[in-house]
Write a structure and sequence with these properties.
methyltransferase, alpha/beta, Class I SAM-dependent methyltransferase
């Protein structure tokens, strides 16, 4: 995702069902609102934990990850027919304009949307990633973002200084030209639905 990535040697933790306490399958599907003919992307798909949940409800699901080793781990456990692997960063997605009906990221927004306050290249990367998401979503397409909250305890997930508050994350998405449909601050996470 550009700034840092989840360590492949800890990939087994991505399969922990305890992750559902931060975002359940049902919650993700309710926010994404997929249909049988939807084309969606899992941004930072890792080992496919959430891709496996969404794939049965869509026509095509692009598992996007910058690490080929994560794709390899996903292949090892078995991949639903609807899933296609894409190795790319969020700032350079290989999709046509308006190609996706939806996209979602679970606990990865902080990885590709880092503001990099002391590094102008990071800020450019962030702007590029969010603008790229707006580009590939069709008009009316949905972007679901569930990520660690800067206002959380910090007991799980990345350090607090790497996270965004709900206000900062929604501002980033609005600045990229997306409309906020819903934005919720929870005890440890934020959940945002944005549309183009």
């Amino acid at each position: 995702m550009g700034f840092h990535t989840y360590p492949v040697d800890r990939a087994d933790a991505l399969e922990d069902p305890g992750r559902y306490r931060y975002c359940s399958r049902e919650e993700l599907l309710a926010m994404l609102e997929p249909t049988a003919d939807s084309i969606v992307a899992d941004l930072g798909s890792g080992t496919g934990f959430y891709a496996d949940d969404v794939a049965p409800f869509v026509d095509a699901l692009y598992a996007v990850d910058v690490q080929t080793a994560m794709h390899d781990r996903y292949r090892e456990k078995g991949v639903p027919d609807a899933v296609e692997f894409v190795t790319a960063g969020i700032s350079s997605l290989p999709f046509d304009d308006d190609q996706l009906d939806g996209a979602y990221s679970t606990m990865t927004h902080h990885e590709y949307a880092s503001t990099g306050t002391d590094d102008t290249d990071s800020e450019t990367e962030s702007d590029g990633a969010l603008a790229e998401l707006a580009r590939v979503l069709r008009p009316g397409g949905r972007l679901v973002t569930v990520d660690w909250s800067a206002d959380g305890s910090g007991d799980a997930g990345p350090p607090l200084e790497e996270r965004f508050s709900l206000a900062d994350a929604t501002s980033q998405l609005e600045d990229a030209g997306l409309d906020i449909e819903s934005a919720v601050d929870r005890p440890e996470t934020i959940a945002i639905v944005a549309t183009r």
